[in-house]
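Re: flavin-adenine dinucleotide structure - here you go.
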Amino acid sequence: TLYERADQLPASTSYDFIIVGAGAGGTVLANRLSDNPGTTVLLLEAGPSNLGVTDAIIPMLPQGLAVTTYDWNYTTTPQSGFAGRSIEYPRGRLLGGSTSTNTMAYTRASSEEWDRYAKLTGDSGWSWKNMQKYMLMNEKFVPSADGHNRTNQYNPALHSTTGMVSISLPGYPHPFDSRIIETTKELSKDWPFNLDMNSGSMLGIGWPQQSIDAFARSSGATAYLAPQYLARKNLHVLTNAHVTRLIQTGTDSGKPAFRSVEYTTADVPTGGTSTGPRITVSAKKEVILAAGAIGTAQILKLSGIGPQKELSALGIKTILNNPSVGANLTDHPLLSNIFYVNSNDTFDTFTMNGTLIAEDIAVWNATHQGPLVDSPLAHLGWARVPSNPYGADTTAGPTTPHYEILFSNGFLSSTTPLPSSGHFMTIVTAITSPAARGSVTLKSTNPFDQPNIDPNMLGTDYDMYLMESAVTAILKIAAANAWKGYIIKPFEDLAAATTPAKLKAYIQAKSATIFHPACTAAMSPKGASWGVTDPDGVVKNISGLRIIDASILPVIPSAHPQAVIYFLGERGAALVKQQYGIN
Ligand SMILES: Cc1cc2nc3c(=O)[nH]c(=O)nc-3n(C[C@H](O)[C@H](O)[C@H](O)COP(=O)(O)OP(=O)(O)OC[C@H]3O[C@@H](n4cnc5c(N)ncnc54)[C@H](O)[C@@H]3O)c2cc1C
């Protein structure tokens, strides 16, 4: 049942599980734990419902959600790798969390990545082989919006058509599709065609798989909180409920127990203060944090679980001193490399013209066809740097990428204003295996204040080297015969990057984030003195508290992370059920 106000929750109900945050991790847990009618679940979400939010439904439009009430509106600390700039740091704040606002690229990560998770956590359950069944439980492959023949665009044998989140290939062609395929032939050594980047082997260029139900976004909310699940009497979902902290409820075998959650009506924007009453609700079995890499770290610290020095300085009583909480924040730096193109058929036509976008929305509404059925991402490519002068490799292995490239049929940038006219193509470069680590620390004890978010973007020479290598690689692509007659020239800022020093300055001035913060409450082996949770997400040295979201990843995946976090949710739910003997 969906409730929008705290006073609507049935007063007498008690819950086996309370889940905090309705994003990629939280929605899976809420669904899977409540599929047994005897198990009661409360899901608390700070934001509103996703229903009827047009920009969260039409795949081409999620940029419209940034800096709205559906966004946490975070800003980073000044980033030294970005020449001291702070950047906007969006996170979804509605049912579905960031899966309701993201760009919908759906990648499982490499088999080596999962095998590394198994190794780093000492739990073979996280290996590629063992995770296959959870991957298939998450995925429901559906036809594309235009119903085109998908032969040679993916390998159907690897996919499920019976899971939860709808996944599809693009449903509207781009003028450069054939040139991209041509590139994989002409530059086959560096950029081979990859029939299916979700096979476990990611390198090369291929067609993107996206969390799109043919023409509309498929998210944690549309899939795992679909009407038939919200109808469950044993699942209560409360929106507009901002969790302010967890409260210790006693001790179990010497460990502090945390089975109570304090929340308040989230009717204030980030940075404000809520005068609403603080409401406490307790779980009989467990509280499961799924507030994302920023939210989870902030809630843990506000609850007295974190580095003693930091907490004491703010007057918070430390209940568990753990310096790993909020440490290791890792993200993927992104750079939009823009080119002028010889085409009238780019999405600049409608992004630069309010009347035309209205017409395209009308077409989308009437026919569920047209350019808005896809995300702005046309093709994805994954590559490794040919040599590494910095010694240690950050990837999980030789078939795992250092960086990604993304082709977009128009001007796509968060750091350069959209020109008033022209036609463009963007080749985004993103560093997917960075060495830099940052942190989430508290700014104040006010739960409505955003924490200090320092993802330390391009914070090492190695990461800068990877970005320089990626830009050099896409310039080589742009110069290939496959693009003759299409790419006219690089956009001004890229065109000016003619020397190594100017290239570095361009990267520092124009890079941003691809929105993948993770690792702030990492899993580690049972008994390890570092890390925040055990391999099953249970918080170390605490009773009754588990975390299942992007924060528990021991290393950021060299991939788009939403699928990875859905899979954490699927296995996480299975582990919870196993522990409590729930069928
Ligand atoms: C703009 C953007 C584009 C992206 N593009 C892609 C992409 O193309 N492909 C991809 O794979 N990934 C993408 N991502 C990343 C991906 O969506 C996230 O990695 C993933 O959703 C993280 O899952 P999560 O469960 O950790 O957190 P989230 O999905 O962010 O969910 C956390 C939830 O907790 C809630 N919450 C937080 N704090 C509190 C609190 N105090 N009280 C109550 N509720 C709280 C939030 O409102 C949110 O609903 C993108 C993200 C963004 C923001």
